[in-house]
Write a structure and sequence with these properties.
Number of helices: 12
Order of helices and strands: HHHHHHHHHHHH
Shape: globular
Strand content: under 5%
Helix content: over 70%
Length: 318
């Protein structure tokens, strides 16, 4: 239980940063450059981590990293950027809160992990809280924004489970290099699309550079490291519920910073969602990792991995 709580706290850093990213994107970044916005966020973060990891993919991990980078980074960042520009911070963040149930459903056939009762109950509570927060929002929800946010949720839910599945392969990489590869691959994928569709990159002012710096370092490089570390140690349902901190943070940030009206039903919704998160952490005694003990371990770790012990349970990962 202590091990679960420790990794839950580490993983919680990610959705908190992602929740604030909605406000930063909508307030400080140019609205007409979703491709460049995703590119400027992902590629520098990947290169920063790559300079620390000092490791390149080998063999099949070139194309695996490209696929995961597309699902979890490249295409995802485009959709979430659009959602942040088209929806209120609260609505954009809460749509992603439906991912815990989806992750558990995908993990059932792909990982042969049947949904456990407490995380499932927590996901139901979380969904109820989402309904309260979204339904009582003060601004109308843009249909295109809702589609973009829902597509981002579907894409990363599948990408996270695929990450766990591939991280069980022999000689799978540790958390740090795998995260660097995905962010770099996702960023490189965006370059031709940004140039062809959006032309020249936007001219940024100081506040926009600061906004991108926050997204790149805090909400991408460090947040993805924390999230993938948790993904390598926690059950999908448990981790998915931690992701519900994303909408809670988004709603609070929208209310405090963007002066979006926070109604009584939304406050109740926040309490309900938080209850679902707590319920999902009450795992049975002895539950520490989603990986069977008899699985073979990778031969080596990677120097500089900031998560001691993650070399034995690597992951290639929202």
């Amino acid at each position: 239980m202590e091990d679960i709580r420790r990794w839950s706290l580490i993983a919680a850093f990610a959705p908190i940063m992602w929740g604030t990213a909605y406000y930063v994107t909508k307030t400080f970044l140019p609205a007409d450059y979703p491709l460049y916005g995703a590119l400027i966020r992902a590629l520098p973060a990947g290169l920063i981590l790559l300079s620390v990891a000092r490791s390149l993919p080998k063999g099949s991990w070139w194309w695996r990293s490209a696929i995961l980078g597309t699902l979890n980074v490249g295409a995802f960042f485009i959709l979430v950027y659009l959602a942040a520009q088209l929806l209120p911070s609260s609505v954009a963040a809460t749509v992603m809160a439906l991912s815990p149930m989806l992750m558990m459903l995908i993990a059932w056939p792909m990982l042969r992990q049947k949904p456990r009762m407490l995380p499932l109950a927590g996901a139901v509570l979380g969904f109820a809280g989402v309904v309260l927060m979204v339904a009582s929002g003060s601004a109308a929800a843009n249909p295109v924004g809702l589609l973009a946010s829902g597509g981002a949720m579907l894409m990363t839910s599948f990408g996270y489970i695929l990450t766990i599945r591939w991280s069980r392969l022999p000689q799978a990489p540790a958390v740090l290099p795998a995260t660097a590869w995905q962010l770099t691959a996702g960023g490189l994928l965006l370059i031709p699309f940004a140039v062809i569709i959006e032309g020249a990159p936007p001219t940024l002012v100081a506040s926009q550079w600061l906004g991108f710096a926050f997204l790149t370092i805090m909400a991408t490089a460090l947040a993805y490291l924390a999230w993938f570390a948790g993904l390598s140690k926690l059950q999908p349902g448990t981790l998915g519920l931690i992701g519900l901190l994303n909408p809670i943070t988004g709603v609070i940030a929208g209310a405090l910073l963007a002066h979006e009206r926070l109604s009584a039903p939304q406050l109740i919704g926040i309490a309900v969602v938080f209850s679902g998160i707590v319920l999902g952490q009450l795992a049975p005694a002895g539950t520490k990792s989603p990986r069977p003990a008899q699985e073979p371990l990778p031969a080596t770790g990677v120097a500089g991995n900031p998560y001691p012990g993650s070399e034995t349970r690597p992951t290639a990962h929202h």
